[in-house]
Amino acid sequence: MIKDNKNLTDFDQILATRYDNGADFWTTPDGRLGIEKPISTLTALMIISELDVPRDHEALQGAAELVLGAIRADGRVRIAPKGAIHPCHTAHAVTGLCRNGYASHPQVQAALDYLLSDRYEDGGWRCKKFIFGHGPETEASNPGVTLLALDAFRLAGLDAVTPKVPNLDRAVETLLDHWTVKIPVGPCHYGIGNLFMQVEYPFLRYNLFYYVYVLSFYEKARKDIRFIEAFAALKQKLDDQGHMIVERPNRKLSKLSICQKGKPSAAATARYLEITKNLELD
């Protein structure tokens, strides 16, 4: 049973959309997991993870089983019957699964192994989809995809170097470097500008709050001046009582109580407090 009545109300709103793409668990009749009308199976898992939904809830289990079933033998995730398979698909899928307690599942482990073996030369992850053409900026990894992947790895307990896990410092470095460069980089042109600097919650897209949150789990980032600057910028977003104010909620989620625009969010504040706890580790 969900304990928080506000979260129950929010979850009811999410559940009300479960058939809107034509089939159950936010998917389409032909099994596409990334159709955002209004939200996809992948996005639903990301949101549910913020609502304290029990792991044995049938909707959570149903959505998770669909995503687990999309993980191929080689670890890549096919989110639609046809079309290219990109690293962002795999990163998005495993992050949603890891957030909901599936990090130790053999198929999730296979997907994580695939991501570790498929890193771009700068240490991050890069989709080969050049919607903005082939400029010099596209020779960088995709910051948004890299952030998702690092989120998945820390959830799976792979944020520290072990004999099994290669050092992820280079992936962390690509994100720290972007704080300085700021210009849109990677084939999908992720940039750091006015929209990035507005607090978004829940964690779905590349933005200041999600950026600082994930990097706070990595020792290399916590000691870096660029991270310290980003954290200072985020800290300025708190109100006088130390509550995190949501500035830019996803418009599809604007009615959820956890992310009301311009209002303090207890759930977002709890994530901010995780950041401060991580900073106490050093």
UniProtKB/TrEMBL annotation:
InterPro entries, sorted: Terpenoid_cyclase/PrenylTrfase
Protein name: Prenyltransferase
Organism: Acetobacterium malicum
